[in-house]
Predict the 3D structure of the following.
Amino acid sequence: MAARRLESTSGASRDGTAGRMPVRLHIDWTRCDGRGLCTELLADQLTRDEWGYPLARRADDASNVPIPAAQLDAAHDAVALCPRQALRLVAE
Amino acid sequence: MDALPPVHGAPGPSAETTAPLAGGVVPPATTARLFLAADPTFAAHRAVYGPMPSIEHPNALVDELRLSGLDGRGGAGFAVWRKVAAVRNSSARRSKRPIVVANGSEGEPLSRKDETLMRRAPHLVIDGLLACAAVVGATDATLYVSTEGANVMRAAMAERADAAHVAVVVAPDGFVTGEATAVANALEHGVSVPRDHVVHLSESGVRGRPTLVQNVETLAQLALIARFGAAWFRSIGTADEPGTRVVTVSGAVDIPQVIEVAGGTPIRAIIDACMRPDHTLAGSLIDGSATPLSATEGRPSPVRAVLVGGYHGGWVPGDRLSVPLSRAELAPYGAQPGAGVLFVLGATACGLETSANIAAYLAGQSAGQCGVCVNGLPAMADVLSRLAARHRDARLPAEITRLADLVTGRGSCSHPDGTARFVLSSLTAFETDVRAHLEGRCEVHG
Ligand code: SF4
Ligand code: SF4
């Protein structure tokens, strides 16, 4: 996927600039250990597969999950709190 | 697969007679294009192909590549001119010097074409690599090759002054070590495992520099296009599959070999070129829904199916061998011309058993980084092996399909996707075997 990396990859950038463009949550599978914190923060977007790894409920691209504007704060939290720093937000 | 006999061009349409160029060089007129040199020396190379023109107008070569329709020959089949243009543009935009890499690591166990090409025509690969470097303005050029490839390429480079700066990096064995991000990782960190990426390598690859990774056959083809032009390239092959491609044919054929064929050649013709004259398929097979005149006319098909595109490819059933080596026509089988692999499954082999073995091999080739790949591929291979072993559990095919969907798109490289595609293709191509196995029977083993 051709995506542009947002300024903030860990920690929150809540100045609203990101809110105006479509954003996806990118999962770095080489880091994720499947403990599932993100799936609790983003329960509408993510569920867990049988091994515990985050599974997009609806996505054309299972490694870059679309995040609706209303969930942007939760997505920022997931990025900040992921114990493996496996998540980042990317602009489409 | 053992050592393969010499390469030759398959019968195919020959180009219109082409006028000699400067120096008396005549552009290759038949399907044998890449293997014309009498031996791998620089002298033999120059004698048949003439000197490589210097790249004075990079954009003109990019345009020639676009007109040629040359696609990548490493597996993914991406348009070559787009990748070259992307690296050139990104380098200019970001003021970062690009890196070009010739990829001859050939991790696909069924493929020998890159090794053969480097052994027989190393100077075409070097010409193509240097041309790519010139087009994108790279001063760093690297060959990423197997140990054997490194030996032959080093010997070739020593014969010419213009390749002194080319670095050689030896790729470790392994199915995913030749994946483009694994190549970038190898050059940057010395570990050949794929890496996470949100932008293309052409934008930011090795140490953040725009990185152009091209398969060695792609570079050899490019070296010919730079010399003889896009119209010459297209004079063989079809409109959609122009030029020639180098394929590796193995399995149930008389003469397993590496062979250069015209783009769009039907699979059957390629197999026939690998058979003794009395064994050819032509006339002995009935395609599609055609009805045989009588049940005994012609001998039964000696081919159960052909795996096209390698272990990440798909099976084409034995009654569909008129399908050409073309992206569009192979798509319904989950296959693509890819790196040009054809593995012929004979009538005495069970497709589900063979597929289960390949799936188990692929599961073992996971780079071990991504949880879904590490857990999902062995799970999928395991269910397929139960089906192959004739477990009478009607839920097995649906479980395989579920796992294939589950792993797809959920790794840092396309290994889960390619493995899932292959496994799904075996369920489709061997549909009747699936039904028999679920009843505890096997069409081959009884
Ligand atoms: S929080 Fe991070 S490590 Fe945990 S499942 Fe989500 S992405 Fe993986
Ligand atoms: S998807 Fe599998 S093969 Fe690819 S990087 Fe991840 S673990 Fe390695």
Summary: The interface with chain B takes residues 1-5, 26-34, 49, 51-53, 55, 61-64, 88, 90 of chain A (CB under 8 Å). The helical segments of chain A are 37-41, 72-81. The first strand of chain A starts at residue 4 and ends at 5.
